[in-house]
Specification:
The chain is of the alpha+beta class. The chain is built from 15 helices and 24 strands.
């Protein structure tokens, strides 16, 4: 099929001159019934898409379709009439590739897209090596904010070149979807703290990097950290986490348990926590670890000689059922929860907001109110560090503090009304997840979609020919969501 429309048959194409002549009426009289039917179907799809888009000015492009299919004042298929067979062959391939790219572009923008799970932050719900089909129509697809981009790349092409052109930038607009984000949804979104990146250092994020080593050091050492650059919202790296907190709610954590508005939240069935396992010197069998699907990445969290004797110890993330299975082994002497906070004295400074002195840690966090569209916050100097990214980075305001007073866009203020909804995202591999506890709220304009099923899955710990996890193909991407 041609990107510019398929003619009735080869004979008809050969009879048509490169430069068509005649009045509009004469051109219309030459069009056969099948082409009118095809044009009618394409027009109906186009009008439906424009209605969904809600931008009626796009209707002007219908006249372009009318010329492509019907009048042909512009010689779209000029190459088909070339006497040079090389031109016809090359342009035939170009035409087919253009058609495929445009089709993929619209499919990825408005219907869905595949994403890979690169890390274990959601194990065991999703596994490293899973390729997911992400449905963008559930929450409503976003109109592209960076419309000029290569559809098969997120932000970088081979060779380190950008896969997008920053201009033009369109304002955030989401088409009507089936529903909004719900608690318990697994959500794919653009990484909020990925607005600025040091390209050689994907982890930790730029802001944590600057806090740890100093902004001047990061900017002054491009050979080590890479070039520092800004990325538009829809070109930021894609993350996948579980939605824990919704707009307008107050979230807190005590001893690792999440509370929403003061009520303890039920934990996902496959949620993992870190445990210390001590044995009598007998190693945990590889067969048991394989049976429990504990990856090499998880096993490498820690292992060695116990400081208390000849025992062996391990540190690894386990679900409750896996922990009970290991604890039942006769050579296991003790299993205890590993508190991340006790192994990282800097945790209170590294949790969101970074660098603010507070008693909050990885397992004991909050309370923190999650911004809601239209809600007004009484703004104080004490609250500002928790919401300044929302007000400044995500909603585009200028924020200054002068003489102990807060100024937004040059005006002194004691309140702020939010323009967007925000969400709180966390991983099921709770103690090994870089999530909202470290980089804060996820604005609604960063939401991409929700994964529906696993397309295919490869075990990174096994050779390629043995790596396919056949039991995960077409498996639900969120079995906890009923």
């Amino acid at each position: 099929m041609s990107f510019f429309g398929k003619d009735k048959d080869k004979e008809e194409v050969k009879e048509m001159p490169v430069k068509q002549t005649g009045s509009l009426k004469e051109r219309l009289d030459r069009i056969n019934k099948s082409r009118w039917i095809r044009f009618g179907i394409v027009s109906a799809l186009f009008f439906g898409w424009v209605a969904w888009l809600g931008s009626w000015w796009v209707l002007v492009f219908w006249f372009l379709l009318f010329d492509i299919y019907i009048t042909k004042f512009v010689p779209w298929n000029w190459w088909k009439f070339s006497e040079n067979p090389v031109v016809r062959m090359v342009m035939g391939w170009v035409d087919a590739i253009m058609y495929a790219l445009v089709l993929v572009y619209f499919l990825f923008l408005f219907v869905g897209q595949n994403y890979q799970i690169p890390s274990s932050s959601l194990e065991k719900t999703l596994l490293t090596g899973d390729y997911l089909w992400v449905n963008k129509m559930v929450y409503g697809p976003r109109v592209p904010q960076t419309p000029l981009h290569f559809p098969l790349a997120q932000n970088t092409l081979p060779g380190g070149f950008d896969s997008y052109i920053e201009s033009p930038q369109w304002e955030y607009h989401r088409l009507k979807g089936v529903r909004s984000v719900e608690r318990g949804d697994i959500v794919v979104f653009n990484f909020p703290a990925g607005d600025t990146v040091a390209v050689n250092m994907p982890n930790p994020d730029y802001y944590t990097l600057c806090f740890t080593y100093g902004r001047e050091a990061v900017w002054a050492n491009p050979s080590q950290y890479g070039k520092v650059k800004y990325r538009p919202v829809d070109r930021r790296d894609a993350y996948v986490k579980r939605c824990i907190g919704l707009p307008g709610e107050t979230l807190s954590m005590k001893n690792g348990t999440v509370y929403i508005n003061g009520k303890a939240l039920a934990e996902p069935e496959n949620m993992q926590r870190n445990y210390i396992i001590e044995t009598d010197g007998t190693p945990i069998s590889e067969a048991l670890l394989d049976e429990l699907k504990i990856s090499n990445e998880a096993r490498s969290l820690g292992a060695g000689q116990s400081p208390y004797g000849n025992e062996l110890w391990y540190a690894m993330p386990l679900t409750k059922s896996a922990m009970k299975e290991i604890k039942a082994q006769p050579y296991v002497k003790k299993v205890r929860f590993l508190d991340v906070d006790e192994s990282n004295p800097m945790d209170s400074l590294l949790t969101y907001p970074i660098g603010v002195k507070k008693s909050w840690t990885h397992n004991d966090y909050g309370p923190l109110w999650i911004p809601k569209k239209g809600a007004t916050l009484n703004l104080t100097l004490q609250k500002l560090p928790y919401y300044i990214r929302c007000i400044k980075n995500y909603e585009g305001n200028e924020v200054d503090v002068k003489g102990g007073k807060i100024y937004i866009n040059g005006k002194e203020t004691k309140t702020y009304t939010f323009k967007m909804d925000y969400y709180w995202m966390m991983g099921d591999n709770r103690d090994n997840s870089s999530d909202s506890r470290y980089w804060g709220f996820v604005p609604e304009d960063h939401i991409i979609g929700t994964p529906m099923f696993v397309i295919i899955s490869f075990d990174p710990d096994k050779p390629l020919l043995q790596s396919i996890r056949w039991d995960r193909i077409f498996k639900s991407a969120n079995p906890d969501k009923k």
